[in-house]
Amino acid sequence: MRPDRSTPVMNGGRRSSADGYEEFFKDSVPCPTCRGLGRVSKEQEGELVALIPMRDKRLKPRRTVLYVLIAVFLCLLTAGLCMFFLFPRDVIVSSNRPLLQPAYLDLNVSATFVNFTVVNYYNFSNSNFFPVKIMGTQMTSMYDEKVMATSSNQTSVEIPTKSTLNYGIFMNFILSAENDWGFLVKFCDDSRSWVHNLPITFELTANYTYLGHVEQATLTTYQQVSCYNSSADARS
């Protein structure tokens, strides 16, 4: 049975008639699941649920796995680079001066007194990708396992990135009968090198800081220290 053209037909809020369509809801939006054949009021837009077919392309991820892998790779690369450049490395201390000549010497054999000063140079190698600052050093010298003298240098020096700094420390020795080292004075007056070159043990302790952290480096060296006045031979 065919409906009469004069009979209105309801279709998603519309009334069909021979003269045309008349909207029931003036303030409405298209129904997302009606394929454009109906409308719903805006008051019901937040309450209704739209059903999407399983074969709808919008449910199929497009390159999601690729994007996730790229994001994970970038995160790992960034973390690896940060760890490589910011990971702290120890400052290496070394010495390549086995023999130390006196920078100043006062020798008086008759008074059993020797006062001389040597400069011990150390190499501080910074292998980090950021500068390191030396806050101070302390050096102790020992002969026959007994402390002869101590010295310190509180000068702050900055070691640039990936570089080596030459750092000198002065140490003054006093050999006399008053400090139980008077028996070494006669060695210092002997021109034979194997006599006046004293085997001294140096223990160095250096404090350095980087990125707000304070660390310590130590080095023990066994060096020959000359207490002979070679200038006297040159004058003679």
TrEMBL record:
The keyword Cell wall biogenesis/degradation does not apply. The chain crosses the membrane at residues 64-87, 107-124. Residues 100-229 form the Transmembrane protein 106 C-terminal domain. It is found in: Endomembrane system. The keyword Transmembrane applies. The lineage of its organism: Eukaryota, Metazoa, Spiralia, Lophotrochozoa, Mollusca. GO terms for cellular component: endomembrane system. Residues 26-64 form the Transmembrane protein 106 N-terminal domain. Keywords: Membrane, Transmembrane, Transmembrane helix. It comes from Batillaria attramentaria. Belongs to the TMEM106 family. This is Transmembrane protein 106B. Pfam families: TMEM106, TMEM106_N.
